[in-house]
């Protein structure tokens, strides 16, 4: 856990901005029925989203015979495919819902070892087993309710109905498990936590620890050696009625009426620049004992008790989740989730699953990234492994940015604050990496002022380390990052943030770029050395000058700096210099096959690198960038051609990138086609998605893709339903966010809008594009017409007042 002292759960940057806004939503919350069988899911005005199964998740344990070459991790198929994830940004919990031996696998993002990559990686924190012993059961149902972020289990055994609830609370930073039965004295079980992988012999992964029970609490405490991480986990057992007996490392409860388990976790990790600067054994304060931190959390949670903990959890979580509702021409399905998925895989493309996946993405983002926690990593907040795939790192050549592509548009800007804090902490080291780069490659441009060479961030990073120059990805990785930093401003309009965080970040990146650009004989400025992420040619990473990925991101960053400077009223010689550089970047070239060239020296498509490579980095100027847009139809056409040539046979996250690109091209059918392929081929019954292996970026990237199909705002105006496929011909969304901090709701029939309302959260002028809009009307919330300016037949602009809602009427 980080920033312990500064935690203000209800007053995040974005929350402060949106306080006092009332937006009418068509989602409300109902409690899930705890009975087996289909739940009352309500109608379109109060849709309930659930993942559910009529059987517990299997648990065969991990298979140590499966070790992917070079990665060295065993595979736990049951964990990855069937368990349901809960999370509060800090604690991650995978719940199996078993009735014989329940398994709750716990993660926390700062538990890390050295790992095979030598870069450290999140590792399984603890296993919590409940020996229940109910072998013969009927009427079983386990469900993960996305409206409440509560997992439930219900079944009958020996004529007694048993129910459980599980949630991870952000406001109180504990996991809560509540067990009850419909007959007094029916609950008997043993609580048996374990520290996993204590036996590791790999020198980077060794750890020590003990599990000790005392009274009603079991404490797991120890040290992960590589970074000298001291950890503590407390499990408190609070039965109502019955008896409690304490063993050495277990607690037995007999004949209780109900039982609450509380779990709290902490380590001596404290985010700050020292984490990144210091050598492994000196990153953490060895004198910081997590025991009092965990005990404090536990004491507060105990005082609050189950009911208040639940109420506080619901108030916090619903406040985020309920901000956005969608209905994509769908009826709620009552099929168990694995059957819904199987039907979909067989070609019955129920849009309900497409909608459910969108809301699940929002659920997973809230669960894995909150204010004052570390950002969502490659696996979000969840790992059962000793060595996580790709170290559960923050991979900066697309993966970590993709995690946040949809955060702002789905009104979850707060979740990105975790990354902002992480960025501020690593930036000082990133500045020294930029200085190293310039000293080595452009010594004539070296500045000796602090921060004078800007900053860079390479591909590999995690909670403990970042990297400088990458061997296989050009310096565009840095502006891949600033793009999201600028998005946070564009969507929230938070000027303090722009002044203090985004502008210095963008300016630093442009400073670095202006040193890394080489002047060619014909007067162009090209990044050198330059590499389109992970493209190999003739067996080696392909290093060049001015590839589209790097040039495009220099262009985006320079433009964003200038826009930010304008908003802040700044002007100076350096801004003048980068303004002059922009026309000399020449980022987009069309090749002999009608494609956007990935490399300047390429002529026909596929001459360099794998023609079906997962990375489509040369299309970053289309998405998440803005350079390829409707004003350049030729580039749009070439981008479409490039996607056709590259194909959709690729990894999970790479499909999500293609989907977002198709949305930007207004190719709704093709966007849906790749989304369908992604759901059919890369989605597991617990709706986690895989590369393979499991990575959260696919889930979150596709969630962004759905939002991008429904609403766009990157071109300086709001465009509703820009990429609507036929299958979603009737539908609505409520509460998506557009740049300028506008909250948008839309309704359509036969793919034509018949309702559009916009709430202005910052009082900026509003531009909207939709067919024939100039002849429509803008009505404010009091029913008065608001004069608009027609900027074209389809484009209007009108002034807004902060907090007001405007309804747009069309001539149809
Ligand atoms: C990037 C991708 C890989 C993988 C890894 C974690 O390097 O190219 O496909 O997702 O990150």
Largest sheet: 9 strands, antiparallel
Number of strands: 34
Alpha-beta classification: alpha+beta
Strand content: 15-25%
Please report the number of helical segments: 16
Ligands: alpha-L-fucopyranose
- Spans of 5+ residues with little confidence (pLDDT < 50)? 1-45
| Separation, N- and C-terminal Cα atoms | 55 Å
The value of Rg in angstroms is: 26 Å
Helical content (DSSP H or I, runs of 4+): 25-40%
Shape summary: globular
Task: Present the secondary structure layout.
Blueprint: H1 13-18, E1 50-53, H2 77-82, E2 84-87, E3 91-95, E4 101-108, E5 112-113, E6 121-122, E7 126-131, E8 138-145, E9 150-157, E10 160-169, E11 174-181, E12 187-194, E13 207-214, E14 217-224, E15 229-240, E16 243-246, E17 251-256, E18 258-267, H3 273-277, H4 290-321, E19 325-328, H5 337-345, H6 351-368, H7 399-404, H8 413-441, H9 476-492, H10 495-516, E20 517-519, E21 525-527, E22 536-537, E23 540-541, H11 548-568, H12 573-581, H13 633-646, H14 652-664, H15 668-682, H16 696-710, E24 711-712, E25 719-720, E26 731-738, E27 742-749, E28 752-760, E29 766-769, E30 777-780, E31 785-786, E32 789-790, E33 795-798, E34 805-809
């Amino acid at each position: 856990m980080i920033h312990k002292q500064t935690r203000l759960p209800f007053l995040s940057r974005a929350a402060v901005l949106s306080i006092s806004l009332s937006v009418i939503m068509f989602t409300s919350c109902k409690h899930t029925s705890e009975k087996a069988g289909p739940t009352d899911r309500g109608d379109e005005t109060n849709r309930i989203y659930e993942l559910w199964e009529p059987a517990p998740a299997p648990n065969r344990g991990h298979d140590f015979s499966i070790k992917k070459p070079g990665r060295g991790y065993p595979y736990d198929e049951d964990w990855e495919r069937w368990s349901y994830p809960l999370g509060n940004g800090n604690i991650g919990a995978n719940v199996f819902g078993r009735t014989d031996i329940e398994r709750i696998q716990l993660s926390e993002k700062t538990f890390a070892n050295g790992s095979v990559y030598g870069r450290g990686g999140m590792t399984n924190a603890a296993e919590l087993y409940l020996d229940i012993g109910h072998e013969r059961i009927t009427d079983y149902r386990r469900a993960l309710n996305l409206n409440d972020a509560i997992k439930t289990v219900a079944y009958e055994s020996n004529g007694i109905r048993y129910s459980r609830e599980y949630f991870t609370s952000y406001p109180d930073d504990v996991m809560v498990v509540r067990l009850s039965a419909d007959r007094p004295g029916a609950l008997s079980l043993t609580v048996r936590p374990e520290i996993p992988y204590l036996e590791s012999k790999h020198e980077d992964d060794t750890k020590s620890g003990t599990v000790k029970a005392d009274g009603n609490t079991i404490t797991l405490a120890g040290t992960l050696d590589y970074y000298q991480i001291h950890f503590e986990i407390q499990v408190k057992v609070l039965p109502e009625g019955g008896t409690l007996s304490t063993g050495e490392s277990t607690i037995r409860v007999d004949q209780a009426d109900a039982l609450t388990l509380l779990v709290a976790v902490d380590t001596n990790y404290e985010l700050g620049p020292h984490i990144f600067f210091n050598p492994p054994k000196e990153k953490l304060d060895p004198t910081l004992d997590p025991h009092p931190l965990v005990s404090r959390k536990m004491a507060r949670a105990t005082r609050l008790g189950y009911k208040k903990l639940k109420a506080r959890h619901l108030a916090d979580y619903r406040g985020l989740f309920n901000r956005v509702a969608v209905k994509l021409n769908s009826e709620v399905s009552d099929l168990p989730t694995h059957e819904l998925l199987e039907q979909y895989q067989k070609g019955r493309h129920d849009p309900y699953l497409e909608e459910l996946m969108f809301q699940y993405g929002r659920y997973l983002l809230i669960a894995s990234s909150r204010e004052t926690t570390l950002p969502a990593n490659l696996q979000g907040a969840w790992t059962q492994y000793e060595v996580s795939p790709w170290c559960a790192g923050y991979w900066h050549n697309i993966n970590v940015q993709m995690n946040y592509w949809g955060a702002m548009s789905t009104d979850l800007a707060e979740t990105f604050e975790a990354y902002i804090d992480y960025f501020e902490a690593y930036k000082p080291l990133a500045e020294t990496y930029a200085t190293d780069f310039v000293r080595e490659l452009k010594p004539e441009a070296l500045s000796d002022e602090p921060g004078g060479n800007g900053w860079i961030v390479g591909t590999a990073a995690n909670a403990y380390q970042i990297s400088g120059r990458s061997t296989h990805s050009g310096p565009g990785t840095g502006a891949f990052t600033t793009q999201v930093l600028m998005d946070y401003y564009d969507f929230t309009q938070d000027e303090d943030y722009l002044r203090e965080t985004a502008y210095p970040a963008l300016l630093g990146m442009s400073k670095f770029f202006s040193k890394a650009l080489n002047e060619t004989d014909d007067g162009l400025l090209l990044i050198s050395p330059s590499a389109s992420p992970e493209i190999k040619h003739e067996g080696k990473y392909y290093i060049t000058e001015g590839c589209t990925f790097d040039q495009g991101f220099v262009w985006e960053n320079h433009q964003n700096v200038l826009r930010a400077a304008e908003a802040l009223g700044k002007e100076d010689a350096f801004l003048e210099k980068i303004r002059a550089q922009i026309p000399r970047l020449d980022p987009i070239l069309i090749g002999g096959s009608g494609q956007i060239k990935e490399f300047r020296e390429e002529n026909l498509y596929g001459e360099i690198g794998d023609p079906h490579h997962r990375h489509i980095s040369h299309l970053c100027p289309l998405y998440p960038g803005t350079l390829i847009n409707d004003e350049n139809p030729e580039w749009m056409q070439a981008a479409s051609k490039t996607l056709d040539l590259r194909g959709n046979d690729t990894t999970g996250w790479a499909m999500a990138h293609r989907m977002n690109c198709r949305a930007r091209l207004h190719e709704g059918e093709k966007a849906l086609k790749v989304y369908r392929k992604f759901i059919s081929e890369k989605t597991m019954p617990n709706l986690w998605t895989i590369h393979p292996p499991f990575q959260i970026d696919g889930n979150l990237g596709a969630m962004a893709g759905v939002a991008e199909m429904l609403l766009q705002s990157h071109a300086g105006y709001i465009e509703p339903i820009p990429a609507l496929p036929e299958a979603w011909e009737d539908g609505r969304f409520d509460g998506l966010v557009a740049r300028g901090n506008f909250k948008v709701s839309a309704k359509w029939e036969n793919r034509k809008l018949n309702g559009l309302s916009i709430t202005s959260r910052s009082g900026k002028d509003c531009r909207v594009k939709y067919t024939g809009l100039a002849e429509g009307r803008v009505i404010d919330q009091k029913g008065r017409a608001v004069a608009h300016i027609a900027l074209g037949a389809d484009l209007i602009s009108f002034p807004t007042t902060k907090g007001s809602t405007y309804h747009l009427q069309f001539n149809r």
